Amino acid sequence: YYKAGYQGHYYKPLFYNLIMSLRGSAWYGNGLFGTDALPFFENFYGGGNSDQAMVRGYDSYSLGPKDFNNDALGGNTAFATGADLILPPPFSTGSFRTSLFIDAGNVY
Fold first, then answer.
1. Residue 65 to residues 32, 52, 73, 100, 104, Cα–Cα distance (Å)
2. pLDDT digit string, tens, across residues 51-77
3. Opening angle at CA 58, ends 54 and 60, nearest 5
């Protein structure tokens, strides 16, 4: 089997110490030599802070197809994208940041 992926992250300073952050990732895998799928233990998973498809607000490894017990099966394709507006810390010397964000993604 083979797996390939791409991750990108872009930061852009705005005005009044605001920072815009854009990120995206795409992953794909498939079998070789007559097999048409990844082994089940190599599937991609998404949701939460998973490596391939981080979508905040969901449980880790919860996105995508489910089995009859409502457990995630994973898939051979995953994508995620997100945008953040990073705000200056109001009461801090810079040890943490606050942001407004939107995320989207799934596993197929």
1. 23, 15, 6, 29, 16
2. 667 888 888 888 888 889 988 888 899
3. 60
Residue tagged 């994208």 (tokens): 81
pTM: 0.77
Q: How far apart are CA 82 and CA 48, in angstroms?
A: 13
Where residue 92 falls among pLDDT bands split at 50, 70, 90?
low
- Listed in sequence order, the residues at least 6 apart from 58 whose beta carbon sits closer than 8 Å to its beta carbon are 46, 47, 48
pLDDT in tens, 38-57: 888 888 888 887 666 788 88
| Structure tokens given for 13 | 């300073």
CA distance 16 to 18: 6
Q: What sign does the CA torsion over 57, 60, 66, 67 have?
A: negative
Distance (Å, whole) CA 75 – CA 36: 12
